[in-house]
Amino acid sequence: SLDGTKEYIHVLNTPNGNTVKLPIPLDGSCYTSARMLRTGNPAGLLQDGDGVTITVPDEWDTLDTVIVLSRNTSVICKPVEGRLLPNDGVT
Q1: Is the dihedral of CA 57, 20, 47, 1 positive or negative?
Q2: How far apart, in whole angstroms, are the C-alpha atoms of residue 52 and residue 20?
Q3: How confident is the model over 50-80, as pLDDT tens digits?
Q4: Cα–Cα nearest to 8, from 30, 34, 46, 47
Q5: Is-contact 23 85, C-beta < 8 A?
C-alpha cells in the first residue's frame, strides 16, 4: 500500500494444501495479521526465524488469490543479513 501498512501477496499458482510459505522478509517487515482480500476472512499468520507461513481459510481462486498482510511500521523485525543464492546452472 502507499502508506506501507499493507502488503499484498498474489498467489497465482495454487500450492498443495492450504498454506503459503514465504521467506524471511529481507527488509525486516513485521506482520501483525493476514486476511483474504476477496472475502475479508482472517488467515492464519506465523512469522518466525524460518519465514512467514500463511494458512488460507478459503478455497483457492483458480486465477488469483490475494492475501493482505498488515505490517507493523513502528517495529523492525531482525532483517536477514544475507542469503546465498544457488549458483548451479548460472552461465
Answers
A1: negative
A2: 8
A3: 899 999 999 888 777 999 999 987 776 765 5
A4: 34
A5: no
